[in-house]
Design a protein that fits this description.
49% helix; 197 residues; mainly alpha
Length: 197
């Protein structure tokens, strides 16, 4: 319990300065420029300096930057998924048409399409279906080739870039890393010796 005169101020102050201020420039288009050192000049005269000189401001900047970046990433991800979905729809239509032209029954066609979409049965059942298709169309059944097709399809379904949501992970290096994992730098101010701040 502190019984002093109270002249030291609050020990709970959240904005206490425990680090050198961090300078970030906001560019005219709303993006940000991160100089290598606070003494570096602004990249363009119109750039607005932002000083992160308290933990609260630094936390708010990281949070706001991640929110902006997440919106951009979500838009890009959605556009990419829409493109993949359109390509897949077109590919499925072509496959269905090609199989039907060969006289494959609708049930077998739908089973193959379902498999391509990840709704199909086990690998062995799929192999039997392909074998049936080959027999019905008078084509030789090349199991090795069909297995390669099957594995490629499985890899596409497991593609983490398609279904998972990429997340923005912007951080400020001095807060996110310590001297053991922070990137070093060298310049005239360090005598061109590697330094970790």
């Amino acid at each position: 319990m502190c019984r002093g005169s109270g002249s030291h101020g609050s020990i709970y102050r959240q904005d206490a300065l425990h680090f050198d201020p961090i300078l970030v420039y906001q560019m005219p288009d709303g993006t940000h420029y991160y100089p290598g050192h606070n003494a570096d000049p602004a990249p363009v005269p119109e750039a607005k300096p932002i000083w992160l000189n308290t933990l609260r401001r630094a936390d708010a900047f990281v949070r706001e930057t991640n929110q902006r970046e997440q919106l951009v990433m979500d838009r890009r991800t959605e556009a990419r998924r829409n493109q993949i979905d359109c390509q897949q729809k077109e590919s499925r239509a072509q496959l269905r048409s090609a199989l039907e032209r060969r006289g494959i029954s609708r049930a077998n066609v739908e089973a193959i399409i379902a498999d391509r979409d990840g709704r199909g049965p086990s690998k062995e059942v799929v192999m039997r279906q392909f074998e049936d298709v080959a027999r019905a169309s008078g084509q030789p059944f090349n199991r090795e080739h069909v297995e390669r097709i099957y594995e490629r399809t499985q890899q596409t379904r497991r593609n983490p870039e398609y279904r998972t949501r990429p997340e923005s992970r912007f951080t400020i290096d001095v807060f996110a890393n310590d001297s053991s994992n922070r990137m070093g730098y060298r310049d005239e101010r360090t005598g061109w010796r590697m330094k970790k701040s």
